[in-house]
Amino acid sequence: MMRVDEVLRRDGVPADLRSVINHTLIGCKEIAHKLSQGELAGILGSTENENVQGETQKKLDVISNEVLKQVLSQDPGVRGIASEEEDNTVACNDEGKYLVTFDPLDGSSNIDVNLSVGTIFSILEAKQPGSGDNMDLFLQSGRNQVAAGYVLYGPSAILVLTTGKGVNFFTLDRHIGEFVLTKEQVRIPEDTKEFAINMSNQRFWEKPMQEYIAHCLQGEEGPLGKRYNMRWVASMVAEVHRILVRGGIFMYPWDSRDPSKPGKLRLMYEGNPMSFIVEQAGGRSTTGREDIMDIQPEDIHQRVPVVLGSKNEVETVMRYHQAG
Ligand code: P6P
Questions:
Q1: Residue 200 burial by CB count (10 A; 0-12/13-18/19+): exposed, middle or buried?
Q2: Is the CB of residue 234 below 6 angstroms from any atom belonging to ligand 1?
Q3: Which residue's C-alpha comes closest to atom 4 of ligand 1?
Q4: How many CB atoms are closer than 10 A to CB 223?
Q5: Ligand 1 pocket: which of 53, 108, 265 to mutate (most atoms <8 Å of CB)?
Q6: Does the beta carbon of 255 lie inside 6 Å of ligand 1?
Q7: How big, in percent rounded to 5, are the helix, strand and coil portions of the chain?
Q8: Looking at the domain that runs over 194-323, which CATH code has it been given?
Q9: Level-2 CATH architecture, domain 4-183
């Protein structure tokens, strides 16, 4: 079975970008090992600190962030990194060509209950000189990504990766300590009967989202004419992975709980990498009104409403928003 670097070489990915991806995966393998130890390593539970998002940091959030920061700073090709767990961007190597943004442990509220979590990463090229602690270098639309991926730490550790030539799955073979190719050119079914949304926020959504979900719940008798199923794992990585495997639509829309925030999920290290992956697999990823990867970022931690998954279902939701 082919290893990640062999597939990247076959796909013509330049050596310096392969190195950044390989360093990212060294970090993810270390995170996978720490997660598998769980309580035995005394690393579950929360710290006393809050991150820049105002969220209480889990011990493993901090550990995972440090692992990735450390391993990426060792790659001369990395100019700088941006992380959900870092207030500002971090300079690595001033001669480096690449910028890496990441959510080191997405879904970390699931850790203490032993449910799926994941690492999400996105790679951009630095388009101008300057140190990696200059946030402006990172403020590029998602269309500029040269690679994106996630590692889902589930019953098996699965890497999903795109460099713009489709989406491939790799499974961590713990005997050899390598991710090996297990599925090539993954395609998302264009239609679905399965939606994922946190229903407890229903009264805070905009009318178009309330109407779409109400119509889903009306099943075959309703205007959408099909019986839907629902899932909510509270881990974006797990939701996106399910959609890549069997189709579906995932939504974290704008809600009025905090009108100053356009959504919960972050554009640079959740919205954009997941959108690159979903579009490369034939799906669609929008705010409900515009493609997420077309957004020109203004801040490294800016949030974005997310509606992604099976192309035809996402476009149905867009029609509800166009109708207003
Ligand atoms: P809620 C995890 O904290 C996360 O950022 C995503 O992975 C997940 O989809 C969402 O938030 C869950 O949010 O409000 O349901 O806990």
A1: exposed
A2: yes
A3: 107
A4: 10
A5: 265
A6: no
A7: 40, 25, 35
A8: 3.40.190.80
A9: 2-Layer Sandwich (3.30)
**Structure-derived torsion over alpha carbons of residues 141, 143, 145, 146, reported in degrees to the nearest 10:** -150
Cβ of residue 134 lying under 6 Å from some atom of ligand 1: no
Same fold, 4-183 and 194-323: no
**What percent of the chain has pLDDT above 70?**
100
Measured from the CA of 237, which atom of ligand 1 is nearest?
A: 7
Rg (alpha carbons) of the chain, rounded to whole number: 19
pLDDT, tens only, 52-62:
878 888 889 99
Residue pointed to by tokens 């999903």: 160
Q: Which ligand 1 atom minimizes the distance to the CA of 252?
A: 9
Mark 282-313 as b/e (b = at least 16 C-beta within 10 Å): bbbbbbbeebbbebebeebbbbbbbbbbbbeb
Which residue has better confidence, 59 or 252?
252
CB atoms within 10 A of CB 276: 26
Q: Does the beta carbon of 74 lie inside 6 Å of ligand 1?
A: no
Domain boundaries, the chain: 4-183, 194-323
